[in-house]
TrEMBL record:
SUPFAM superfamilies: OMPA-like, OmpA-like. This is Porin OmpA. CDD domains: OmpA_C-like. Belongs to the outer membrane OOP (TC 1.B.6) superfamily. OmpA family. It is a multi-pass membrane protein. It comes from the Bacteria. Its main location: membrane.
């Protein structure tokens, strides 16, 4: 007897297609930023409401075909559900998550004549592996889409007062299905995220019918290692220091040993090593200071923001350092007094929580050239 049935909703196919299209759009965006591991490992827990689709019409028809009049069919299609998961963010836009879920228990009770006390109950739990695409829409908000496979464990039990033989339908079953979902998330801090998600888990009832269970949850995610250590100054033969622009306004007299000159950092626009007019004015002041201090040698270190690949950023940082050197040489400073080095995106001045936010204060702070002045 077909006792407990869950309908296959054709709209789920449309939802799968929409989810896959959103995944493809994430992939096209991710191609512009490679080799960037934003946050690494994380764990999370989601709690919420689950909802099953019980095919009451089929249950009623089966009972009537066996000689029962069905006065009412009471359904309990909702329960609490949860999921526990761990994940790894392997690019700016993609995460792999694995976890355990429990969708709850669902049941029905048929009010029949003759009185049968006919009841069915089923529960669904299991394991999943998901590919999650995450698209930032602001500094704190992101949308996400997921597609995954599940290993479902279902347990179904039927009972009556003896008028219906239910023992043949009591089964435990395990099988592989798929799932998909959409959601939004909000970054509370570097370490904690809040997620709101809607997911659809495909499942079988135990009489060979396809169906699904929807899970709507609110969750919290903890990211490991999202806070990066403060940059460590590069070791030099003598101490170095940096100050704001207004502290270097005119040529300094020759500074006796072991004092150290003070020069301001130079900042660049995104993805360029070109000097703008304001930067050239600042470097001319630096050139005047260096001319007044002929014993001073300079190491110019170039840096970049976190956006882009490590190899590209390394080359860009070297070009930035060379650009500063070339300008100072053109202002009459001997080239032998300079040494240049590029650090790429290493040792940032500020941690960039979202490398894709190219105009953030952290990104602008990291696109720089640093002066290290040594008095011999």
């Amino acid at each position: 007897m077909k006792n407990l049935m869950i309908r296959h909703d054709c709209s789920s196919l449309l939802a799968v297609n929409g989810c896959l299209l959103l995944m493809l759009s994430f992939n096209s965006l991710a191609s512009s930023e490679t080799d960037y591991k934003a946050n690494g490992w994380h764990v999370g827990i989601n709690l919420g409401q689950s909802s099953a689709k019980i095919d009451g019409d089929s249950i009623k028809a089966n009972l009537e075909n066996t000689g029962f009049d069905v006065n009412a069919l009471n359904q309990d299609r909702h329960d609490q559900g949860y999921k526990l998961y761990a994940g790894y963010k392997f690019s700016s836009y993609f995460v792999l998550e694995a976890g355990y879920f429990d969708l709850g228990r669902f049941s029905f009770n048929a009010n029949t004549l003759p009185v049968s006390n006919y009841t069915g109950r089923t529960g669904v739990k299991g394991w999943n592996l998901d590919l999650v695409g995450i698209l930032p829409i602001s500094d704190s908000w992101s949308v996400l889409a997921r597609v995954g496979v599940t290993r479902n464990d279902t347990k179904t039990r039927f009972s009556s007062n003896g008028l219906i033989n239910t023992s043949v339908n009591n089964q435990d079953n395990s099988y592989t299905k798929h799932k998909f979902g959409l959601g939004v998330q909000y970054d509370i801090s570097d370490a904690f995220i809040v997620r709101l998600e809607a997911e659809r888990y495909r499942m079988d009832d135990l009489v060979g019918n396809d169906g699904d269970v929807d899970l709507y949850t609110l969750g919290v995610v903890y990211r490991f290692g999202s806070r990066q250590p403060q940059p460590v100054p590069t070791t030099t033969p003598e101490p170095l220091t940096r100050v704001a622009t207004e502290q270097v306004t005119q040529a300094s007299p020759v500074i006796p040993e072991p004092e150290v000159l003070v020069l301001e950092d130079v900042h660049f626009n995104f993805d360029t090593a070109e000097l703008n007019n304001d930067t050239k004015v600042m470097l001319r002041r630096h050139a005047t200071t260096l001319k007044a201090n002929p014993k001073a040698r300079v190491r110019i270190a170039g840096y970049t923001s976190a956006s882009g690949s490590a190899a590209y950023n390394q080359a860009l940082s070297e070009r930035r350092a060379e650009s500063i050197k070339a300008f100072l040489v053109s202002e009459g400073i001997n080239a032998n007094r300079f040494k240049t080095i590029g650090f790429g995106q290493r040792n940032p001045a500020k941690y960039e929580a979202k490398p894709s936010a190219l105009q953030s204060d952290a990104a602008k702070a990291n696109m720089r050239g640093l002066f290290e002045i040594i008095i011999e």
